[in-house]
Amino acid sequence: MKNTLLILASAALLFSSCEKWLNPDLENLKTIEQMHTDARYAQGFLTTAYRTIPGYYDNSDVATDDAVTNQRSHPYLQIATGSWTPTFNPTSVWGQSYGAMQYLNIFLENSNLVDWAEDPEAAQLFNIRMRGEAFGLRALYIYYLLRNHGGINASGELMGVPLMTQSMPSTADFNVPRASFMECINQIYMDLDSADAYLPMQYNNVATAAQIPEHLRKYSQDVSAYNRVMGEYSRQLFDGLISKAFRARTALLAASPYFQHTSNNSDWATAANAAASVINFKGGISGLPNNGHTYYDNRNEIDNLSNGTNPPEMIWREVIQPNNSDQELQNLPPSLFGNALVNPTQNLVDAFPMANGYPINHSENSGGYNAATPYADRDPRLNLYIIYNGSTAGVSNRQILTGSASGTADAINARETSSRTGYYMRKRLRADVNLDPVNTVRRNRYYPRVRYTEIYLSYAEAANEAWGPDGTGGNAYSAYDVIKAIRQRAGVGATNNDPYLEECRADKDKMRALIRNERRLELCFESFRFWDLRRWKMPLTESATGMDINGSNYQPIPVEGRTFQNHMYYGPIPFSEVLKYSNLQQNTGWE
Predict the structure, then answer these.
(1) Where do the SusD-like N-terminal domain residues begin and end (predicted)?
(2) Continuous H helices in 415-507
(3) pLDDT one-digit tens code per residue, 209-218
(4) How confident is the prediction for the chain on average, in pLDDT?
């Protein structure tokens, strides 16, 4: 947390010798006051905070019942198999978050004094936009700190994290206690309110002053100035829609079972309405993007992105990475020159229903599941997201054989880079990337930050808890309506009107299980399962299993146990921080 960063070296320093590198000239060092006359330097404080936003794909799925990894040193494998401690905590976002908030607080304390532009109206717009970004990013970092480090202390209190809403000089007292959980939630909401006051819903050019958002017209009605600051050139910076998405994430977290406590007055209706605000902006149920579930391989869509535009599925994304093959190199089967880092489990495969919508283990076998042909007539998402024995993959549509007797590089444990479960991940990969060294082909890609489908699923979960499967709470749609749209998009229940969904419609508990399963499927391998299991307080110790298929012989195999204790529903405060600061209480069980 002690990361004051009050004096920064200029990025333009040119070092002519080791001595000058070790001892930069004083004129090359900048002070806080120089922010006021150097707008680029001032903006750098904000830019730095963007650089440490937690990545979307952290592969935490390999510590759950959804996946394992063949990289034996992988930190989430270590977590899953008993090595998670306050001194070894790959889930920690402590240092990066407090470092970013220090930058943001310095920025907020000085931005009103910066000469942003010669044009006074543009200068004012630059200031309010970047202040809005800073408030939004501070809320974002508090959210991740709360998710990863909030919990119950030894006294049974539901605690958040220390709140840092002003810059901390090196002489400050860093021995501050944790704020309560609700104080953190309220601070997030306050910061998002501030962001909303300064930001447009999205960054788009306008043609007339009347198109400038009403709450921003008091700052300027100059179309040219507005477009310069709030137009398309600012896309992928924090905006009002992203603010609404993080409000929905925060409200869902606060309402979830593992944060229920007498001191927490959050409720499911608040979470549902927060998500509804995003969904309404998108156009309601009909706004659910038709190809959102294949966002990672919508090739024409990805290749034609320009001017910072988003695909229909994306609320927020990172910048386009041209000619990229990182995900394919990490995760394709070895016969396609990949390293198969993430291996889906049989547990996850079993969670995909039949194409008619029934679970494979439905009590009356209404789905028609046949263990002798387990992949036949399944939910189409199974083939979209997972490569199983007999699937084809790669630019040559190579058949992937995973059985231990297949004699291929893709066989279970055939190599260090082979699958341990008999399955390979297809999701996140572009099918037109070729890793063959003789004819390597890389493609454009982006990494998500927030997807619309996540918010639709969050609404379904919260609405069902608040009002039941068919209740709307005054919105135009119910949990049932959202799940029906998601399953229809996937091609589930397309030929029989999805009778299993209708069965769940009459039972809140059944609908809850269905919603959670749909979230599991739609967001698989996107780093949600690890956190969802915790916030639902669901069992963490289900062992990961696989399937060895040789001919007509299907042999389930144990792959990896899960070693979690009950206190691990909450993550620890870093041991180094607790050791330094006596007022910083640890979450119970991590002492």
Answers:
(1) 62-205
(2) 452-467, 479-490, 499-505
(3) 999 999 999 9
(4) 94
Residues 6 or more apart from 283 whose CB is under 8 A from it? none
Cβ proximity of 131 and 198 under 8 Å: yes
- Give the long-range contacts of residues 487-491, CB within 8 A, separation 24 or more: 487/357, 487/518, 489/288, 489/290, 489/292, 489/293, 490/293, 490/379, 490/380, 490/381, 490/522, 491/355, 491/379, 491/380
For residues 184 and 161, the answer to whether their CB atoms sit within 8 Å is yes
Give the closest residue to 194 by CA, choosing from 145, 134, 142, 234: 134
Where are the strands (E) in 360-512, listed by range?
Answer: 386-387, 392-393, 398-399, 424-425, 443-445, 448-451
Longest CA span, the chain: 78
**Closest by Cα among 235, 383, 384, 395 to 298:** 384
Q: Which residue shows structure tokens 């990289």? A: 71
The full DSSP string for 56-80 is S---GGGGTTTEEES-TT-HHHHII
Angle at 191 between CA 138 and CA 281, to 5 degrees: 105
Q: Tell me how far apart the alpha carbons of residues 390 and 374 are, in angstroms, rounded to a whole number.
A: 12
Distance CA 509, CA 479 (A): 13
User: What percentage of the chain reaches a pLDDT higher than 70?
Assistant: 95
Residue 345, token pair as written in the block? 């489990």
**pLDDT, tens digit (0-9, with 9 covering 90-100), for 518-534:** 999 999 999 999 999 99
Q: Are the CB atoms for 351 and 449 separated by under 8 Å?
A: no
Query: Using CA atoms, how far apart are residues 273 and 472, in angstroms rounded to an integer?
Result: 10
Confidence of residue 31 (pLDDT cuts 50, 70, 90): confident
pLDDT at 16 over 90: no
CA distance linking residue 490 with residue 523, whole number of Å: 13
The burial of 131, by beta-carbon neighbours within 10 Å (0-12 exposed, 13-18 middle, 19 or more buried), is given as buried
Other Cβ atoms closer than 10 A to 445:
24
pLDDT in tens, 285-302: 999 999 999 999 999 999
Band (pLDDT 50/70/90 cuts) for residue 367 is confident
C-alpha distances in Å from residue 87, one per residue of 117, 152, 372: 47, 19, 47
User: On the CB side of 112, how many CA atoms lie within 13 Å of its CA?
Assistant: 3
Instruction: Identify the band that residue 269 occupies on the pLDDT scale cut at 50, 70 and 90.
Output: very high
State the Cα–Cα distance between residues 431 and 396, nearest whole angstrom.
10
Angle at 519 (CA atoms; ends 133, 467), nearest 5 degrees: 90
CA gap 568, 587 in Å, rounded: 9
Q: How does pLDDT run across 130-152, given as a tens digit for each residue?
A: 999 999 999 999 999 999 999 99
DSSP state letters, 241-299:
HHHHHHHHHHHHHHHSGGG--TT----HHHHHHHHHHHHHHHTGGGGS-TTGGGGGG-H
| Main-chain dihedrals φ then ψ at residue 548, nearest 5 degrees | -100, 115
Alpha-carbon gap, residue 467 to 109, rounded angstroms: 43
Beta-bridge mates of residue 253 = none
pLDDT tens, position by position, 34-63: 999 999 999 999 999 999 999 999 999 999
pLDDT at 22 (0 to 100): 41
Domain positions in the chain: 68-81+323-441+539-568
